[in-house]
């Protein structure tokens, strides 16, 4: 396998879209796996109480397991909660358990409630022996305090957009939120990447969405488009990314291509 270039400093990328089912988790897990396969050290932070990213990466996330909840609501260090994914030696996950479902409310009354993830991530990145090249944060489908914590902890936002009707609905709200975060909480945050997912070349609609997104975001939108693929949707039930589940499937190849584009893009 071709080895991908690695960034000189850790890239922290939040995968966000307040719509559910658009491919946030699928994109997080498969990009992370593809980059790890390419030789990078990658941490996935599962910030969705559903814990789908933890499931897909094959890591334990029963209620008893130490998790991202203990990190942001308690003051547990990330080092105590991270688990190595069985997929690749360089792939790690900070899992989400069911406890995270209450975090949105518990956070409200905590000091520095918007900065808790950033503080924990900074402390962890400063102490690890081998630096991470990428940290991906998989967001829940809302713009609440968990997603705000992700925006404050990150430098980059990656928005997956489903090639379907209503794909662009809600996008301006998301962009407004990013601007608010930039102004008040994290001036370094930038929308770096848009990835079109669940593309079906047989529909005119999918092509219209692709054209429209490229027109609005020519610099951010990756050339690679992720096709709709059964193999992609099957992989999580085996606790695997599609990269290891079916490495030569079109879904795997497209996520590897997207990962390569991201790796070759440098960020200022
Ligand atoms: P989100 O995290 O935004 O809620 P998911 O990544 O969980 O979205 O995807 C929603 C559903 O669509 C899941 O069942 C997933 O397996 C499926 N899915 C995601 N991407 C694809 C794809 N490219 N082809 C087919 N199914 C997909
Ligand atoms: Mg998800």
Automatic annotation (TrEMBL):
CDD domains for this protein: ParAB_family
Family: Belongs to the ParA family.
Function of the molecule: May play a role in septum formation.
Name listed for the protein in its UniProt record: Chromosome partitioning protein
InterPro entries in the record: AAA_dom, DNA_Partitioning_ATPase, P-loop_NTPase
PANTHER family: P-LOOP CONTAINING NUCLEOSIDE TRIPHOSPHATE HYDROLASE, PARA FAMILY PROTEIN CT_582
Domain AAA: start-end pairs: 11-190
SUPFAM superfamilies in the cross-refs: P-loop containing nucleoside triphosphate hydrolases (SSF52540)
Source organism of this protein record: Pseudolysinimonas yzui
